[in-house]
């Protein structure tokens, strides 16, 4: 019943994608059960030196029991599930690979009926295990110690990869004899390579019936940023379970490996800083500490908000039971039952042999939580941040700690929550200058899915608005080329611009589809499209010829709620509770407010788009609540054929009026790289909002207090303060 | 040569739209040359108590001479222009009304050739004066003391209103005998009214040949927020110059005035706060002070940026000569010659008599700077902000100070400028966790154009990105109605929802068109649309069926650069310097990155849309630089017929390739009101970005230093800190 010790835990962290060949050739390889890295804590503590004090050490004892029906599995519970499965008859001969293990949440009605202090409903785990090339779906009752349901998937996909799968694939590939020749042809040995294992997508019958991974290699000579140094044209297709190279292709021996110059992004005290003036230290300061509380590990309360926040190995960060207090009555009112990124689709735009398959579905293939490394204090999150660990499960069914994977902080960015300035007479000529500083609460995590870093923010405002932001940084996936200047490129032949000598930044998209189980003042909601329609005036009635009129369209079925955004046919998108009217007779609602966005334009019959058909509507789908419809690309996404997507479920065109509905929103990015993205990209962000619309009777922060000078902290510079 | 004293200056501030009837009936009325308000400074100092120390008092002496060719007219220069005009022969009999007076900027080539230390080019003023219903356009040479050019406009529009125009119109209207009966029919006297003077738009021949204003009245009984209490159906059309009511219409005597309950938005220490937990004090702290400098009043230098920042009575805030330092060579490189909001178009969506004309063009009709009140320290801008005054001109040609109208501050909002997290082997198993805190510089002003508050932010990032944000707050323009519940409204008849009893929030749009004179590495630039085109693959070449390919289209003429945004035909929009190639052969460029946006859908022949035809393209136009093409709606916008808009200029379809070009971007909002917008709206923001694209050879902040704990300030709570 003990969690892996720090020394044992480390290898799990080390095994994350991209897996580095080093481990396979070194005593660090956890498959050889060697230990190491005992100095890791010391290393992390070097940078930044004092900021890690808030990091909790991995618990030596099992955590306290769950306090909330939605709390993730504890260390003790994970051990118990493993123990139950170990003595489960079908697994006696061979213990399966545990591809995922997580809380099987109680029925929504049970959760909604539960109150703090009640005994929590019986705890269950949902396990996806792989045995003999079959995906086993099991629910295990922790109280009875029994496997309650056990089903073998008949669908097309495989479960999320484990780190062991990745290790196996890379190990298989790097042991393949022909690789040495490919390395040698480029003046390298296999020991100079870092190899990664992108998922293969799915492209027809040849790729069915077995789990495959593509393995690509890079030179790690002289740089930690091997992504910038591809061995272009080299692709190995590996059967993960049989540990066999199915196909070895190297068409790029004539393509130079891009150089290592300027690829290292690590801070070194001696680095030449950018040519700019010093920036004096600046910090968000809260000397009285944060205003939020986190009780029982997961229940966050702040200002007028309350929600359950938990790490998830697949979704990364899940918010549940999001409740806002009514500004006047103080009553707790439901906004959302559950919200999380359901899938992340990243198609690259290159048809070449080494590129066509790159159409990642990162949440379902690798896991956003599984790839969320510890956040860097003071740089990923501000000084006033609080950190939360994830307790996840490895392929052998053992728990491990993903430390500091979520941060939670209050933000003041210098903006006003509302303002009005005027001169008025009602008080005898007094100047009216009213403004209220905006303070928000941010819950953040950052997934490093190989080269790319995705930061997910849930930001809560006191006016009832929730802003969801995805920020992209990290490394481009670059393509080797013989060219070192665009003047050698004919007729826009390349799939993107040169971002460095011999390195093309290949165009690609990112689509993040969020599952938003809205429960506005209760589960039963209605989706209303408020369309702004141009009306032409009756001649002579007024001098105006046209105006826009809001027309409300209630979506009766799923088809009515498939929304494609258009600047020229604008609408607002409301989720309302038809049973809860404001005093003025407006239904209580929240609206989805899109921001900058992008749509997937791939052919609907193109395999990547088939599998990610949940991006066919840009931006919204609405489905009736269905316990099993959580993952927009399907429960088993890996090599899936697209037979279990949101698009498929929604073709039933179910009724959605005055029902418990789930809204799905897709945030998209087109990315045409440029030189500034080399060797690491400045952050690009996009967001959307969930905004109250006639939910409150009036501006809920009308009576908020302004900030006065005497409220603010008294600060002095640190003795040793330097430049940023 | 003295500026108006505080007592004289105050009336100008007090005269801003909306003008309140109080002044017309009280000794404060500046038209009666009464003085008052000597205690104003004391009043302002009451709130917040200690925060106004940075406010500069109005200068008793003329300011120091201008130091930069772009510096706005000084107090002394304004006096000198007035003196020159006073003795100018055509104005000897009658001194005209000075509708606007501003620096006539030297030719761009002169400015570009000027270096710090050089004598500044001869100073000239551009004056628009009104005399006998004619608009006189004059340039005055301050050195020679002569009127250099003098032209009488033959176009359709009138100049920007002065506060005296507004006073005259309101005074004329409230003196109109029938108003007493309209007030009495609603149980009020004229003394209970606040009247405002919206511009009339232009709707045909009846409205030509004279300057008119519409006057609307509200009850100010029991509230400073009279906007929420319209006398619906009452409209007075006033001839401003003849001081005559042309039309008096009152069709709303049966419509109740919405009540005053909950309309007051002022802070009172005894106010019941919203139902939420206390938020501990939070502040952006910079104990070593800001890192930027402002030299000679207007030249801002920060990190790698340098720009000229000045207040403008019409545009509000103008940034000029925006230069960024190359991250590697340190060389100063031009990005933009000039950027400012050129026009703000706000059409309301109601055809009724009292509403159809509401189609404001706030910059050209009222002035964004003229309506920019002092920012509220600690609430409009953070504690570390620096404030800048505007020196503007009143109708009599005298200068006045618009104090604290711009703030400038460094922002740290807790985000990362870039990040990557990984485990790597190149340093022997060291964990790689790199992130860099993002610090930016914000220049802000807020125009309170009557009911609405528009905050304009120019935010500069060290990675070369400029983010331009417009935030909306303030009051809705509400419409009185007999209804107090939506269940009384038939068939979606209303032009918006009830936001309070008897008050409809009328649907409306906001469009802010920015003038962006891009000079990327020099004046001559080319606009390139990088279109992402779906390519279908040749059967059998690869398993993929489709991908997106970037196709570059160089805009040869203006027609090629008229951009309507579409999610389904995506492009990037680059302004590149075809003569400056990166080492890789990519042209140096900046791209315009749209965010959330809205398009005007009014009929192109509808008068408001004719006049604001610059919003026909959503989002971009590109024009060749033309000194006279600054104002998208025309130089003289008031009652214009749309004969001098960006759309008209651009119909010439001029050549724009490798020329000095100006890019115009429109940021739009559709606003369907809701109860949360009552009685003052939570801030709504939208933005767009100017982002380097192959401008730098690589990520310009790659070598930036992370934040370390020892850099940060040491803070303690203030003794008296309270809730926010």
TrEMBL record, chains A, B:
Biased composition range(s): Pro residues: 56-69
Keywords: Copper, Disulfide bond, Metal-binding, Oxidoreductase, TPQ
Active site: 362, 452
Domain Copper amine oxidase catalytic: 283-701
Gene Ontology MF: a single term: primary methylamine oxidase activity
Modified residues (2',4',5'-topaquinone): 452
Gene Ontology biological-process entries: amine metabolic process
Enzyme Commission number: 1.4.3.-
Cofactor field: Cu cation
Enzyme class: oxidoreductase
Xref: PANTHER family: AMINE OXIDASE [COPPER-CONTAINING] GAMMA 1-RELATED, COPPER AMINE OXIDASE
Protein's name according to its UniProt entry: Amine oxidase
Protein species of origin: Linum tenue
Taxonomic path: Eukaryota, Viridiplantae, Streptophyta, Embryophyta, Tracheophyta
